[in-house]
Write a structure and sequence with these properties.
Blueprint (H helix, E strand, L loop, with lengths): L3 E6 L2 E6 L2 E18 L5 E21 L2 E5 L10 H13 L4 E7 L10 H16 L6 H11 L3 H4 L4 E6 L3 E4 L7 E6 L8 H11 L9 H13 L15 H4 L3 H10 L6 E2 L6 E5 L2 H15 L2 E6 L11
Parallel strand pairs: 5-6
Antiparallel strand pairs: 1-2, 3-4, 4-6, 4-7, 7-8, 9-11, 9-12, 10-11
Helix pairs in contact: 1-2, 2-3
Length: about 300
């Protein structure tokens, strides 16, 4: 992609820098099983992941060094995943090119929706384009694996079965559902998402570890029949969410009181989601959740898989 365009004003020719824009899409865990704790401190998981159209926006401009700013001032620090992604890619590409990155946040922070990981994945895609590196999807996924567990999936998103730490991915057909509602309670703490996730793993007894067979069975149904009924969606952390997040159960009950059923925690929480039967119902549930429970709430549709063009 060209990074500059020429414009003529009053007979004079100007070269104008272009802005590379990438959307960072939130994810839902349609299933989530914890299999075991590994020797390296991580956990083996089995999960079906789905991106939705709730997204942050990142803008990339040429710059001498790496500069980062964010609409959420609490995230504008040098160890942000976006900055770490930029530094890793710059070093690996052995380039002296720099970048100015502007992040417009919309995905709630530390909510189980993968916002920080989505931003990091979008940074890899955006810098691949800005710096004209020509890296493939596999290249970017390899870098993503070095940064965090959800980031490999979020490089391209769509629908996938993830295992290991989340780096082993098998694409799946998209669910037949058009609309979901996400309710994000403000019942978390101020710790970074990694600390929250570690706390959730610590609260989960080893007796709740499973083999991943339930997730694989749903993946097989999706592959064979295109069937992803909400009754088959689940998250092992939902068993500890009421104890981990004060007020979570009340929000869950309030969401159910609007007519939502098969409500599922996503990630390590505290956000939850449900399938809505129509756009109109999804919009109503989201608006009522905001009004009655004071929560962030979003009516969302599925986000398709992003294709990486290594020729850009």
């Amino acid at each position: 992609m060209a990074r500059f365009r020429s414009e003529r004003h009053n007979g004079n020719q100007f070269t104008v820098a272009l802005v590379i824009v990438e959307h960072a899409y939130a994810k839902l865990n349609l299933t989530l099983e914890v299999i075991r704790k590994r020797a390296d401190g991580y956990h083996d998981l089995a999960t079906i992941l789905q991106t939705v159209d709730l997204h942050d926006t990142l803008e990339f401009r040429d710059n001498d060094g790496i500069e980062f700013e964010c609409s959420d001032a609490s995230l504008a620090y040098n160890d942000n995943l976006v900055v770490r992604s930029a530094e890793l890619l710059r070093k690996a590409a052995d380039t002296d090119r720099g970048v100015s990155i502007r992040l417009h946040k919309r995905i709630p922070v530390a909510a189980g929706l993968g916002g920080g990981s989505a931003d990091a994945a979008a940074a890899l895609r955006g810098l691949n384009r800005l710096w004209e590196l020509g890296m493939s999807e596999d290249d970017l996924v390899d870098f993503a694996t070095e940064i965090g567990s959800d980031i490999p999936f979020l490089v391209c998103g769509g629908t996938a079965l993830a295992s290991g730490r989340g780096e082993r991915l098998e694409p799946l057909p998209a669910p037949e559902h058009e609309w979901f509602v996400i309710v994000a309670p403000g019942v978390g703490d101020d710790d970074p998402s990694e600390s929250k996730t570690a706390r959730m793993f610590g609260m989960l007894p080893s007796t709740n570890h499973t083999t991943g067979s339930l997730t694989r069975k749903l993946a097989a149904r999706m592959l064979e029949k295109g069937d992803c009924h909400p009754a088959f969606m689940f998250n092992v952390f939902q068993q500890v969410a009421p104890h981990a997040f004060p007020g979570w159960q009340q929000v869950h009950e309030g969401f159910a009181g609007l007519g939502a059923s098969d409500i599922v925690l996503t990630g390590a929480g505290p956000s939850m989601f449900a399938v809505a039967p129509s756009k109109e119902v999804a919009t109503a549930w989201a608006l009522l959740s905001k009004a009655r429970m004071g929560c962030d709430a979003f009516a969302v549709s599925l986000s398709p898989r992003i294709e990486i063009d290594s020729e850009q």
